[in-house]
Give the backbone structure.
Amino acid sequence: MSQKDTIILGIESSCDDTSAAILKNETILSNIIATQDVHKLYGGVVPELASRAHQQNIVPVVDQALKSAGISFKEIDAIAFTRGPGLLGSLVVGTSFSKAFSLALDIPMLDVNHMHGHVLAHFIDEEGKDKPEFPFLCLTVSGGHTQIVLVKDYLEMEVVGTTIDDAAGEAFDKTAKILGFPYPGGPLIDKYAKEGDSSKFVFSKPNMDGYDFSFSGFKTSVLYFIQKQEKLNSDFIKDNLADLCASIQKSIIDILFVKLIKASNDFGIKQIAIAGGVSANSGLRTELNRIGVLKKWKTFIPKFEFCTDNAAMIAITGKYMYDKKMFADQTISASSRMKI
Ligand code: KG4
Ligand code: ZN
C-alpha cells in the first residue's frame, strides 16, 4: 500500500514579501509571492507599512496558492509559517494567520526558522536536479543575513561564519543607493554589471579572522571614491555606470568567496550550496560554477524563485518538521531574532 501524501501549506511574511505555497511531499504545487512596491518610495523597507501590506495580502495570497494548486482546505495536513528571524510586525501577521488557520481546521502548526528555509530550498524536487548530501556548506546571502552554514542534517545546522556589520544584500543595496538606484538596488547592479569591466575600479576589502565577513569598510570606500571622482566630473556615475556596477559586484563576490573557500578547505567539504536573495545574482552564480570546477566542488544553486523570500522553502522545512512531529502550540509567538 502506498504511503499517504503529505500536503503542507507554507506561509512566509518575514520582511516585505507575502507568500503562500502548497507542497505535496517534496513537490511544490504552487508558490505565490506578493511583493510590496510601497517601499520603493522610501529607499528601504518601512516596517509599519510592510506589516499593513501583509495584512492586506495574506488572505488573497493563500486563496490563490490553494486555487492554483487545485487543493481544498480539507486536504491540508499542516500549516508551516516563518516564526523568525525578521521584522516583528511582519512576522506577527503570518504567525497570527497560521494560529487561526490551524485552530479553525484543527491541523498541526509548524514554526519554521526562515534561515533553515533558505538552506532547505535545495530539497524541493526539481526535475533533473540532484540534492545535496550531508554534510554540506551553504553560503546564505540575503538582505538581512550573510552566513556560512554547516548543514549536518535537515534540521541540524551550525553557523560557522557570519557578518559583523552589513549583510551582502545590504552591501548591494547601499552601494546601489550611492549610484542613485531605487531600492532594492541589488538586481540593478547585477543588470548593469553584465556590460561592465569588473577590473576597472578597486575597492577596499576587509581583513577578518576565521569565516566572518564585514562589508562596512567596503561600502565606505565606494562612497568616498565616488564623492572624490564627482568633484572632478559631475557625470562620473553616469559615464562609468556599468564599470562601477561590475567592480562593486566583483568586490562583494570576492569577499564572500575568500571565506567560502577557506571553510571548504578547513572542513574538508566539497558539497557547496548557495541560498538567499543574493544567490539570484548572476555574477555569484557564475563564480560558484567557475570556482567549483577549479576546486572540484559539487555545487548547488536554487531555482530563481526559491532564492528570494518565498513560502515554498518554508513549506519544505515544515515537511521535515512534520515528519518528526515537531509541532507548535497556540502559545507560540513570532521571534524577530530567532537563531538557527
Ligand atoms: O532573501 P531575500 O529575498 O530577503 C531577505 O531575507 O533579506 O533577499 C533580498 C536581498 C536584497 O538585498 C536584494 O537586493 C538582493 O537580495 N538581491 C540581489 C539580486 N536579487 C536580489 N542582489 C544582487 N543581485 C541580484 N540579482
Ligand atoms: Zn530571506
User: Anything to note?
Assistant: The mean pLDDT is 95. Residues 114, 118, 142, 276-277, 309 surround zinc ion (ligand 2) (CB under 6 Å). The chain has two domains: 7-122+307-323, 132-302. Strands lie at 7-12, 17-24, 27-35, 78-84, 109-113, 136-141, 146-153, 156-162, 271-275, 298-300.
